[in-house]
Amino acid sequence: xxxxxxxxxxxxxxxxxxxVVMLSIAACGGDGHGRTVFVAQIVSxxxxxxxxxxxxxxxxxxxxxxxxxxxIDDNDPNFPEYRAFLDFPLDGSTGQDVVPANAAIVxxxxxxxLDEVSFATVVPTLIDLVPYPVSGLRxxxxxxxxxVFRRLDFFRSDQGNFVAIDVTPLMQEAQxxxxxxxxxxxxxxxxxxxxxxVGIEDLPQVTITAPLLTVEYE
Length: 218
Hints:
Elements: H1 8-27, E1 38-43, E2 50-54, E3 59-63, E4 67-72, E5 81-89, E6 105-118, E7 122-129, E8 148-155, E9 162-166, H2 168-176, E10 181-188, E11 197-201, E12 212-217
């Protein structure tokens, strides 16, 4: 007798096999080489975050504020420059995800919510990888040499919005050096501009807008 099609059971089994294969491909991270890519998400440690203002003579250190500032505050008669610092523990010490010390970094993205972008339509910015004590910022951290950095622009239209920053090279260097914390400093890029003032929201109890580091690794 001629077989004119698959029975319901055979069709069901075929679909099941296809589903298992698709799930296996997804679990491998989609790189086609059978490697699994893991994702860690880490909210910054507000107690270690902070900013430093310098007016040419004195340093003012603020630890754990709700908003971190960097740039030039044009409303301040002393025109202090601010630099902002964020700390992301990689070892799970704050109850966040862990990035294993032997992990190979695929990508890293830092997402921040901007409370303020003032005095310029475009704010040329440097983001530095800079280790500093988790016990608290010091005046020398204001101008310590970066291990590696990248340049980016913030825009006035970014105020009140999230901004995602590719920090893959910085994270790869932190991992290469075996750093237990991913720590970065935001400052104006004075080679392009000498004005602009940016506020980064840092409310740990509002995790939806807290600074967030997302790391993909193998």
